């Protein structure tokens, strides 16, 4: 009975974590470059069940030998193994602001690969798909949080307050001075660690020559959250949570009867 109690409880905890991830996705539906979180559920190791019994051997002195009968396997619960971001392309929307940049990603060499803007956060390199940039008081191209946007050589981009254009290849033209935008390629996005402020931590490489990528100036990439799909997932998750809750309540009532009724002296 206790085993079923914990199995139902683990299912409720797993669905609660799923709900938290989906609620965060919906809250960031209008955040540029946001990547939706997807919880990965995994079952606890299965237990092999056997019926313990013995078989009598018809000998003079009598002999019992074990003759266990295999019943089958039993699952002991589920848990959220990890929460992974979904790096599929978000829709682009035009803003008309020259400092807004968006990455339009086509085919890349690796199935789990993705291209990012490279920024400097507290002296360390980070990746983002949020191209909602601006120019600070010193003339540097920065994110809305004030982190420096890096060029192809890992340096900060000094605009001197001048207007600039960005080509589809990601080259910034500052009145004749060409500065390549720092675009980094991550071969396996599952190895990235998600941080706050729409940033990811990990290892990147220069953009491969066969990657189909274009940079759009005056546009922003929206989040890749599908609100209708997310709401449907939340409803399904809530139904599973309620089912486990009812099972847990039934076990609780059974345990209550076992304590208060079984063994009562009439």
TrEMBL record:
Main location: other
Keyword check for Membrane: no
Annotated Flagellar basal-body/hook protein C-terminal domain residues: 216-259
Matches recorded under InterPro entries: Flag_bb_rod_N, Flagellar_basal_body_rod_CS, Flagellar_FlgE/F/G, Flg_bb/hook_C_dom, FlgE/F/G-like, LlgE_F_G-like_D1
Residue intervals of the Flagellar basal body rod protein N-terminal domain: 5-35
Keywords from the UniProt entry: Bacterial flagellum, Cell projection, Cilium, Flagellum
Signal peptide (UniProt feature, chain positions): none
Location of the protein in the cell: Bacterial flagellum basal body
Top-rank taxon, per record: Bacteria
Chain ranges of the Flagellar hook protein FlgE/F/G-like D1 domain: 112-172
Cross-referenced PROSITE patterns: FLAGELLA_BB_ROD (PS00588)
PANTHER family: FLAGELLAR BASAL-BODY ROD PROTEIN FLGG (PTHR30435:SF19), FLAGELLAR PROTEIN (PTHR30435)
Family membership noted in the UniProt record: Belongs to the flagella basal body rod proteins family.
Name listed for the protein in its UniProt record: Flagellar hook-basal body protein
The organism's taxonomic lineage, starting at the top: Bacteria, Bacillati, Bacillota, Bacilli, Bacillales
